[in-house]
What does this fold into?
Amino acid sequence: MKSMSKCTGGKSTVLIADDNAANLELLCDLLSEQDYELICTADGDQALQVIHNQSVDLALLDVMMPYKSGFSVCSLIKANPETRFIPVVLVTGLSSVSERIQGIECGADDFLSKPVNKQELLARVSSLLRLKESTDELENAETVLNSLALSIEAKDPYTRGHCDRLANLAVALAQHLGLPDEQLLALRRAGIVHDIGKIGVPEHILLKPGPLTDEEWRIMKEHPVIGERICAPMKSFRLVLPIIRHHHEKFDGSGYPDGLKGAQIPLTARILQVVDVFDALTTDRPYRKALSFEAAFALMRAEVERGWWDRRLVEDFESLICGSAVLLEESETVSVC
It folds into this structure.
């Protein structure tokens, strides 16, 4: 087995995997004049080891390698949530349509044909690294939003863990209903950031143990709109924004901020509001102790009769919770009904 070598460079890290020493040296030479850090490996297993152990910005993979082919390595990279956004270029002498289709199916971002043209190589690598940089910026922005949302939650000891619980319960209900993956992701994100707009609510209102005045309540009801405005620049939050804005609407139109009724309220927002109410009822608050799950569902059913919540969703959620066990705070599995 050829040993792993590393060519010193600059900012972005490019992994090159090829079992042919001449091809490996050629690719390294072609990229050595650029401001990249180059890591050269001789097979698919070594390539995966590098990706597992350090940050990589782009992978150039020979298709035909020992141990694991470029197809296999690409599939494993794209299947891992921690590495799926690494651009992968398959370098191949194969030219059949079926082999190209196989590369696309395993998640390859681009292809290079042997013999490699230097200008084409540099252009494709540069383009994909720019894309990776944009993706990283989006991820960093999402991390900042999540941290901001959790910092708001941390101000109130009674809501500790609320965001994580909402994210988990909302996704569980959405999976029970058979919603697609993009909606599951939107609900997971919304569970964390749904109340981020509370950053615009003064702490003396946010943490007030007693009833709010009319003016304080007017200010509090602005937080969904503020939250939507904070998250709006994130294009990846396209499906999250309606959840943030509408998770305080009520089925009879008496909610806020827009007074939507029934099916006018997005399904994902209705899902989040159901699990939000459940979590609020089953955790300690300054004005009362936590209700039992049975008592919480009894109250929610009464509120359904008042026209507040989606009857079907409350029934489905109660069936989901009471028909099994769910993973709640601190990953403790508890029987619930």
The first helix runs from residue 21 to 31. Confidence is low (pLDDT under 50) at residues 1-10, 326-335. The CA atoms of residues 249 and 255 lie 4 Å apart. Residues 5-135 form a domain with the Rossmann fold fold (CATH 3.40.50.2300).
